Amino acid sequence: MESLSWVILATTISLLIMLKLLNYPHGRKTHPPGPRPWPLIGNLNLIGPLPHQSLHKLSQTYGKLMYLEFGSTPVVIASSPEMAKQILCTHDRIFASRPVMAAGKHTTYNYHNITWAPYGPYWSQGRKIFLNELFSSNRLGSSKYIRVEEMKSLLSRLHALSGVSIVLKDHVTRTNLNVISRNVLGRKYFSASREEKEKEMVTFEEFQEMLDELLLLNGVLNVGDWIPWLRFMDLQGYVKRMKALCKRLDRFYEHVLEEHRARMKAEGDGFVEKDMVDVLLKMADDPNLEVKLDFDSVKGFTQDLLAGGTDTTSITMEWAMSELIKQPHIIMKAVNELDRVIGRERWVQETDFPNLTFIDSILKETMRLHPVAVLLAPHLALEDCTVAGYDIAKGTIVFINSWSIGRDSDIWDDPQSFRPERFLGRDMDVKGQHFELLPFGSGRRMCPAYSLGLKMMRTILGNLLHGFNWNLPKNIKIEDIDMEELFGLNTQRKFPLVVVPEPRLAAHMYN
Ligand code: HEM
Fold it and tell me: Is 510's pLDDT higher than 60?
C-alpha cells in the first residue's frame, strides 16, 4: 500500500514538472520576457545575495520590464523610468497593494502598520493620519526646534571627538533616533550606555540593533513567502527570528504606551496631545473614526515612524560621505559654497537650501547611485493589467529597480561616476515626478515622510561639511574604501565608514 502511494506521488510530481515545462509561457498570456523558470524554485537560483544587482544584470538580457517566477509566485521587475511610470503613475491604483509576506505578519502586528497594510480603507485612513496629522507642514514647523537642538548636539559631540576615528553612521543614527523619538514618543526612551541602563528599559545600541534586525528581516528573500508549501519548515530560520524580534519590540512599545495612557488618564478632559503617540492614542479612542484603530495599530504606526525615520537618513549620509571622501575636490567645491552662502559664524538651517544648490546636487547624486530602498517596497497587482503591451496577471508582485534606473547609461552620462554637477541647472527633483530618480518612490505608496527625510538629510550633510574636515584613519587609504553593499529593506554599506573629524570653524561655534 505504502509503495503504491509513493508511485502515485512520484507520477504526480513528474506530470506537474512536464506540464510546467510544456506550458511555458503559460496559456495565452504574453507576460514580459524573462528567463525560463525551473519547476518548484522558479528563477530563485538566479538571485544572489544582492538581489537588485542580480536583477539588474538579468534586465540587460531580458529588458526593462522582465518576468520571473520566485518559487511559484509571478514577479515583474521594472528597470526604466518609463516602466516605473507605468506601474506607479499610469496604473497606480492597480499596483497600490502589498503582498502577503511573513515580515508583514510577524513583525508588524499582522499588517497593522502602513508599510505592509494591503490597499484598502485601513491603509488609506492610516496614510491620511500620517499626511494630515503627523507630517503636516504645521507639525513639521512646530517640531523644528527639536531638529535644531539635536543637530547642535551632534556637532558638539563630533567636536569632542576631534582627531578620533569614529563610525560615522552610529553618530548620525543617534541624532535621527533622538529627533524621531522626541517627535513620536515625546522624549528619548533610550539610555546612552549600559551603565545608565536602569534609567530606561533599553539602551540606544540595543534599540539600534533591533531596528537593524527589523529592516533586514523586512527585506530578506524568505523562501516560505515564495514557495508556500515549504512555509511550515522555515528553512532559513527567518520566521523564528521575526517572532523573537517582535516580542522584544512589543515589550518596548507596551512600556511607551503605558506611560502615555497613564498621562492621558491623569489629565482627563484637559489632556492635550504632545507627541505622535498621543495623537494616535486619541484616535484609537475615537468611536467616529471610519475604521477602528486598536493598540496594535498604534504600535504598528509607531514602528513605521521609528524604523522609517532612523536608518534611511543615516545610511544615505554614510554613502554620501563615502563618495565625497574619495573625491576631495568635490568637498572643496561644497565648502566654497558653504563659506559663500552661510559664512563662518552660523550653522546651516533648513531654510538655506534653496541657496545651497551644490550640496543639494550631492544629495541627489548620492540617492541616484545609492538609493536606500534599491527595489522600493514590493507592490502587488490587484487586477489583471496590460503594461507596455504585456499582460501582468492579478497577484503578480512588482519591484521597481531604482538602483538599476540610477545606473542606466541611456539616461545618465558616465553613470558609474559620482558627479554631482550633473544635477546643476537640471530640473529634476526627488518628489516622485521624475521617474529617473525615485529614492522615495512615487504615487499612492510614495514615502509619506519624504519632506521630513529631506529636511534631515540636507541639514545634516550641510553641517557635517560646514563644521568639519574629514580624514581617513592613518592606516587607511582612499583606495581602501570599498563600496560593497549589504542588501535589506534599506541597503547599506557592508563595512561601516570610519572617519576622523577635524573642526573647520572657530571653537565657540561648537558650544
Ligand atoms: C532618506 C529618507 C527616506 C527615504 C529614502 C525613504 C524611502 C521610502 C520608499 C522608497 C518607500 C516605499 C515606496 C513604495 O512602496 O513605492 C517608503 C515608504 C514609507 N516610508 Fe519612507 N523614506 C525615508 C524617510 C522616511 C521617514 C522619515 C519616515 C517616517 C518617519 C518614513 C516612513 C515611511 C512609511 C510609513 C512608508 C510606507 C508608505 C506606504 O506603504 O503607504 N520614511 N519610504
Answer: yes
For residue 372, how far is its CA from the centre of ligand 1 (angstroms)?
Answer: 10
- Model-level pTM? 0.92
Q: Is 363 in the pocket of ligand 1 (CB under 6 A)?
A: no
Residue range 289-298, pLDDT digits in tens: 989 999 999 9
CB of 181 sitting under 6 A from ligand 1: no
Beta bridge partners of 503: 468
Residues 190, 167: Cα–Cα separation, whole Å: 20
Is any atom of ligand 1 closer than 6 Å to the C-beta of 488?
no
Report the largest interatomic distance among the alpha carbons of the chain, rounded to a whole angstrom.
88
The three cell numbers locating residue 127? 496614510
Residue closest to 177 by CA, chosen among 298, 350, 276, 308:
308
Strand partners, 500: 471
* Whole-number Å distance between alpha carbons of 136 and 145: 16
**C-alpha 447: how far from chain center:** 9
Q: Which of 218, 181, 216, 175 is nearest to 202 (CA)?
A: 181
The residue among 19, 384, 51 whose CA lies nearest residue 226 is 51
Edge-to-edge, what's the strand order for the sheet holding 166-167? Answer: 166-167, 498-503, 468-471
Q: In 3-state terms, what secondary structure has residue 75?
A: strand
> CA 222 to CA 62: how far, in whole Å?
25
ipTM above 0.85, yes or no: yes
DSSP 3-state of 410? coil
Query: Is ligand 1 within 6 A of the CB of residue 373?
Result: yes
Residue 213 and residue 205 in contact, taking contact as beta carbons nearer than 8 Å: no
Question: CA 214, CA 249: separation in Å to the nearest integer?
Answer: 9
Cell 522558479 appears where?
A: 42
CA–CA distance from 390 to each of 32, 43, 68, 387, 397 (Å)? Answer: 6, 19, 13, 5, 15
Strand partners, 400: 78
How do residues 186-219 score in pLDDT, each as one tens digit?
998 988 776 665 667 889 899 999 999 999 999 9
CA atoms of 15 and 464, how far apart (whole Å): 63
Cβ contact 488:216 at 8 Å: yes
Q: Among residues 467, 492, 461, which one has the least CA distance to residue 360?
A: 461
Asked if omega into 25 is within 30° of 0 (cis), the reply is yes
